[in-house]
Amino acid sequence: MKKTILSFAFALLTVFTHAQQKPNIVLIYADDLGYGDLSCYGATNVKTPNIDRVAAEGVRFTNAHATSATCTPSRYSLLTGQYAWRKTGTGIAPGDAALLIPTDRVTLPGMLQRAGYRTGVVGKWHLGLGPKGGPDWNGDIKPGPLEIGFNYSFLLPATGDRVPCVYVENHRIVGLDPSDPVQVSYKDPIGNEPTGKANPELLKMMYSHGHDQTIINGVSRIGYMSGGKAARWVDEEMADVLTGKVAQFMERNQKNPFFVYFSTHDIHVPRMPHSRFVGKSGMGPRGDAILQLDWCVGEVMKTLERLGLKNNTLVIISSDNGPVVDDGYKDDAVAKLNGHKPAGPLRGGKYSAFDAGTRVPFIVRWPGKVKAGTSDALLSQVDLLASLAALTGQKPGADEATDSQNTLNGFLGKDKKGRDYVIEQAINNTLSVVKGNWKYIEPSTGPQIMVHTNTESGYDPQPQLYDLKTDIGETKNLAKQHPQVVQELTNLLKTVRGN
Ligand code: NG6
Ligand code: CA
Predict the structure, then answer these.
(1) Strands, E, within 320-453: which ranges?
(2) Domain range enclosing 64
(3) CB atoms within 10 A of CB 53
């Protein structure tokens, strides 16, 4: 009897401590996933049941933004709470770039570490590694994630299409044979391995623009690499490898609150999904990579369920920038769209100043805390730092993460308005502002169509103003009709820029 009472009391205590525990945070950050690429955002040619389920159980946002229309600056802003355009050298990083994030500054993972979280990053990094001049690939690769607030990292150093094509776990390349050192060059060829340009007959998938340098796993990449043969990744296994590392991290840290930044490779190029997804979408490798991404999300949810953590975990799913169809490989993506609209109703795409560059899928699930539904709140990923700080009872210092605002209630679906305004950055650094119904794109020069990717840039030497409420596709420039709005938003941009 006594024993029963005791174990009952113990069970109560466990329930109580669990209820008190800070939520785990899982951020699944897809690559180049467009506003229209998921079935819960209106896609019909491709089905994403796992992501749709997370969305149905949580809040699906319609007006949430990455800060930038490309990867490196969006990720920089996400992790530092500062707009990347404030710091030069934060454009798309080559694979041998030095670590871009200063090690003496508050970061999203560092802030969560302070709150008692165990923090991990798995997947695409693309924020540089090592000191000025780049890392020592054959030694300790640092500084990197571990020096800016992560307890664990398992990375693709840059992107899937950039060398070196090896995984880096904490400070070391995984499976490196010291007698076969890795060498990397973004200038001159290194070693004598075949390149896409010289040996196209060796390719599994032909490049369409760029991507004609060293061939790894039958795919030519950006940059030259030699050595590290035993350590090279197999693209087709990447989603399984990364998802497995995420599961292990959550398992190891199940007793702690944890934060995991699962930075998927999908759906970036080269799109080389596992054979079980090949041909399954009917849309070619781009659609198959969406199915693979959806599978990854399903696996994460299964792991949370198995560990009994599904309720006390805040799951966020989003993307680093908008969609692109032909991003440098002949992977049939254009031919097999069959009417699929990667950007949904939005104009432009990855790289551009139009809304499809940064308005991305954004889903938040936290049972019991977040009421299921949709929200039109205006949100920016730069605010996750201050908002998750608020969630975990912290406040960044006055000169820390200065662009990050606490919009926690927006992210939790309680405040339907969100931010006052959002800033968007195109690849050529053109800035835009969304405020209320208005979208203002500052004047800039450059081609209206980016020829290789066939993306509408949104560049125009004249100011542009669109009413997103009546014209979400940014087709009618109303700048001439509303000079006072143009002036107001020009001034706002000036103030935010600080010049
Ligand atoms: C571009 C690449 C593109 C992609 C992009 C970065 C060429 C011709 N194009 O320069 O394929 O890698 O950089 O994408 O090399 S991002 O999502 O990481 O920003
Ligand atoms: Ca990207």
Answers:
(1) 362-365, 373-375, 379-380, 421-425, 431-435, 438-441, 449-450
(2) 24-182+227-412
(3) 16
Asked whether residue 244 falls in the same domain as residue 334, the answer is yes
Ligand nearest to the CA of 29: 2
Ligand 1 pocket test, candidate residues 100, 268, 319, 327, most atoms within 8 A of CB: 327
- The ligand 1 atom at the shortest distance from the C-alpha of residue 210 is 8
In the numeric block, the tokens 């954004």 are attached to 362
Q: Which residues pair with 380 in a beta bridge?
A: 65
- Judge if the beta carbon of residue 159 lies within 6 A of ligand 1: yes
For ligand 2, the distance from its centroid to the CA atom of residue 338, given in whole angstroms, is 23
Parallel, antiparallel or unpaired: strands 224-226 and 172-173: unpaired
H helix count then E strand count, the chain:
9, 22
Joined together, the tokens standing for residue 74 give 């969006």
In 382-460, which residue ranges form alpha helices assigned H by DSSP? Answer: 384-391, 408-411
Q: What is the ipTM of this complex?
A: 0.94
Cβ of 266 closer than 6 Å to ligand 1, yes or no, is no
3-state secondary structure of 390: helix
Q: Which atom of ligand 1 is nearest to the CA of 162?
A: 12
CATH of the domain at 478: 3.30.1120.10
pLDDT, one tens digit per residue, over 387-418 is: 999 999 999 998 999 999 999 999 999 999 99
Strand partners, 421: 435
| Domain count within the chain | 2
**Other beta carbons within 10 Å of 272:** 26
**Spacing, Cα 42 to ligand 2 middle (Å):** 21
Would 215 be classed as within a structural domain?
A: no
Phi-psi region of 51 (alpha: psi -120 to 50; beta: other; left: phi over 0): alpha
Asked if residue 32 has its Cβ within 6 Å of ligand 1, the reply is yes
Task: Determine contact, residues 329/271, Cβ cutoff 8 Å.
Answer: yes
Q: Are residues 352 and 381 in the same domain?
A: yes
Ligand 1 atom closest to Cα of residue 158? 18
Which amino acid, one-letter code, is at 133?
Answer: G
344-380, pLDDT tens digit by residue? Answer: 999 999 999 999 999 999 999 999 999 999 999 999 9
pLDDT in tens, 57-94: 999 999 999 999 999 999 999 999 999 999 999 999 99
Q: Which ligand is nearest to the CA of 66?
A: 2
Mutate to test the pocket of ligand 1, among 222, 271, 329, 427 (most ligand atoms within 8 A of CB): 222
Proximal ligand: closest to the CA of 125: 1
- Domain limit, last residue, from 412, 436, 453: 412
Tell me the β-bridge partners of 295: none
